[in-house]
Amino acid sequence: MALKYRPGLAERPEYDMDENPYEITLNANESTLNMPPLVEDRLMGRFASVAFNRYPTATDYLNLTEQIAKNFGVQTNQVVLGNGSSELIEKIFYCFGNAKTSKIVFPQPSFSMYSIYAAAAEAQGIPVDLEDDYTFDAEKFVKTCVDNKAALAVVCNPNNPTGTGIPLADIQYIADNLPMSCVFLVDEAYIEFYGQSAMGLLKDYPNMIIARTFSKAYGLASCRVGYAIGSPDVMRMIGRAFMPYHMNTLSLVTADVVYQMRDEYVPRIQMVIAERKRMIEELKKVDGVTVYPSETNFVLFHLNNSEDLTKAFEAASIGVRHFGNAPRLANCLRISMGTRQENDTWLNVLKDFMGGAQ
Ligand SMILES: *Cc1c(COP(=O)(O)O)cnc(C)c1O
């Protein structure tokens, strides 16, 4: 007998994850370095006092929330924590979804999960094409939101998987020109590698929400911790979408210690930025490769036979992200920044491949 699944579930696309083990894993924009030893030492001390038998307490939540609020000069009731910013983004989509009548606008190509979350929220996802060079047209974006009476407008800045940054002036232009009835979500998953955060705009736009994560610059993908900041009223509503105590104590404690010691991550972030610049320059020198500008911890480039190059990387036990025939990403590869040595390793595989293939 047929099971009575939710309508639309079977049609929902699945996120395509590469679970192969690699010696060099550069396919998910993670930090290639594990926790700094100093941070690990303090964390192990903190773990010793965890009450494993208890549900997470309000204090476990507040310790982290207060730190984040203090850092950005906002109130604690403006901060909501999530299991990765993914959970926050999914819930925010849910909060503005309404049985196929609501519209959610986002750029394309961008984070592939946006269209999946829109479908899950039973909203209509409306992608706005980036330009040919993957730059973002703020006017076109706002016009699409206005024309569609969108409930939610989302941008990813800097953008995954293109790497391109949206200038803060354009973010402000969007905020100024969106109707107040449209929530404006800025996904800043990679902002630490760019610097042009919209955080300073929040106080002027009560319909704006910024989502951040510990998974990328802070190398905490294992823990699934993110946060969103917005106006108290909006964040209170969004908070209703979560079950009570959805975060686990171990992740809360870990993120709390990492955030206390975030200065330890500055040199790593600088290393990633330096490597990104170096690899972009190196890729520019390779005939047949078109590399795009990046403000993130990864680079995106195009070549004619990306599938064969992916196989060459796999043969060398290097995992990179290939997009198959995703819209506007055909023959593109995305590689997260590794250590200098890891980057030299994949560059040499690429150069050998291009030398042989051309
Ligand atoms: C990685 C990423 C996130 C969040 O990841 P979490 O691990 O769930 O915090 C959000 N948006 C984009 C665009 C990302 O690339």
**Any idea of the CATH class of the largest domain?**
Alpha Beta
Helical percentage: 25-40%
Associated small molecules: pyridoxal-5'-phosphate
The largest beta-sheet arranges its strands as 2-8-7-6-5-3-4
Structural class, from helix and strand content? Answer: alpha/beta
Provide the domain count.
Answer: 2
Low-confidence stretches: none
Count, helices:
11
**What string, H for helix and E for strand, traces the elements in order?**
EHHEHEHEHEHEEEHHHEEHEEEH
Tally of extended strands? 13
- What percentage of amino acids are in beta strands? 15-25%
Task: Return the CATH topology of the largest domain.
Answer: Aspartate Aminotransferase, domain 2
Mean pLDDT: 95
N- to C-terminal separation? 56 Å
- Computed CA radius of gyration, to the nearest angstrom: 21 Å
Question: What gross morphology would you assign?
Answer: globular
CATH superfamily of the largest domain: Type I PLP-dependent aspartate aminotransferase-like (Major domain)
Biggest sheet record: 7 strands, mixed
Using the 3D structure, state the CATH architecture of the largest domain. 3-Layer(aba) Sandwich
What is the secondary structure topology, with strand pairs?
Layout: E1 24-25, H1 37-47, H2 58-72, E2 79-82, H3 84-95, E3 103-108, H4 113-120, E4 124-129, H5 138-147, E5 152-156, H6 168-177, E6 183-187, E7 208-213, E8 226-229, H7 232-239, H8 249-260, H9 266-284, E9 290-291, E10 298-302, H10 306-315, E11 318-319, E12 321-322, E13 332-336, H11 340-357
Helix pairs in contact: 1-8, 2-8, 3-4, 5-6
The structure holds pyridoxal-5'-phosphate.
The site of pyridoxal-5'-phosphate has 14 residues, from helix 3.
